[in-house]
C-alpha cells in the first residue's frame, strides 16, 4: 500500500508539474518581469575616454620606463625627459625612417619605367576601342585598369609597396601618445592620487631647468610652444620640398591639414605641463635633424639607400 500510494503521489506531482510548465510557457515565464530595470549603457564622453587612456597599459609602461631611467641615471627630470625622447627616437623611429627611405627610393625609381609603359598602354587601349567599339568611359576604365596592373607588377618585383612607407607613423604615433599621456599623468597626479604620485609631482615641481623650473606648470614665457611650432613647420616644409616634383592632390590636402594642425598645437602646448611640452619639443627637434641627415647623399649611401632618379 505504501509503495502504491507513493507511486500515485509521484504521478500527481509529475502531472501537476507538466501542467504548470504549459501554463507558464503560455504566460511567457522566460520574459523579464515588468519591474526589472533595463541596463542603460553609458554614452561616450571625452572624460571617460581620457580616463581609460590614462589607465591603459601602454601609458603605465611608458611611465615605468621614465621612472626607471630617472632612478638609474640619477639625472633631473628635465634631463631624463630629454634623454628618453632622444633614445626612443634613435632606437625606434630612426631605423624605421631609413627603411622608409629605402622603400620610397625604390618606388621613385619606378617612374621612368612607368612613363615608358604609358604610350604602349594607350596604343593597346586605342586598339581595343576599335576592335570592341568601346566608348570613352569604357576606354578610360580599361586604360586605368591596365596601368594599375602593370604598376602593381613593378611594385611586387621591387618590393616597394607604398603602405610600407607608413611604418614610421604606425610605430611613432602610439609611442608619442603613450609618453605624452604618461608625462601628463605625472604632472597632474593621475590616474591615482596616492603617495607615489605625490612624490613624482614634487620631484617634477623642482625638476626643470632655465626658465621652466617647474615641470608641472605650463611654460611661463611660451618659448617652448613657439619653438615646437617652428620645428614642426620646418619638418613639414622639408618634406614638402623633397616631394615637390611628385606631389599629388591628396598630398597637398594632407599638407594643408598638417599646417593647420601645427598652428593649433602652439596654443595647446602653451597650456600643457612643461614636461609634456619639453617631450614634444625634443621629439620634433630630433625629427628635424633626422630629415636633414637623410637628405645627405653621403649618409644615404652609408645606409645603402638606392640613388633616386634626379638626386643631386
Please explain how this structure is put together:
The model is unreliable at 1-34 (pLDDT under 50). The chain has helices at 2-27, 46-54, 57-73, 77-108, 111-132, 136-158, 167-188, 195-205, 223-242, 249-271, 274-294, 297-302. It has one domain (75-303). 74% of the residues lie in helices and 0% in strands. It is mostly helical. The chain crosses the membrane at residues 163-183, 253-272, 278-294.
Short structural description:
This protein has helices spanning 2-27, 46-54, 57-73, 77-108, 111-132, 136-158, 167-188, 195-205, 223-242, 249-271, 274-294, 297-302. It has 312 residues and is mostly helical. Keywords: Membrane, Transmembrane, Transmembrane helix.
Which characteristics define this entry?
312 residues; mainly alpha; 12 helices; 74% helix; disordered N terminus; YidC/ALB3/OXA1/COX18; YidC/Oxa/ALB_C
Mean pLDDT: 82
Number of helices: 12
* Unreliable runs: 1-34
Strand content: under 5%
Q: How would you classify the quaternary structure?
A: single chain
Backbone CA Rg: 32 Å
**Envelope shape:** elongated
Number of domains: 1
- Give helix and strand order, one letter per element, not per position: HHHHHHHHHHHH
Structural class category: mainly alpha
How many DSSP-defined strands?
0
What portion of residues is helical? over 70%
Distance between the termini: 113 Å
Biggest β-sheet, characterized? none
Could you outline the blueprint of secondary structure elements for this entry?
Blueprint lengths: L1 H26 L18 H9 L2 H17 L3 H32 L2 H22 L3 H23 L8 H22 L6 H11 L17 H20 L6 H23 L2 H21 L2 H6 L10
Helix pairs in contact: 3-4, 3-7, 4-7, 4-11, 5-6, 7-11, 9-10, 9-11
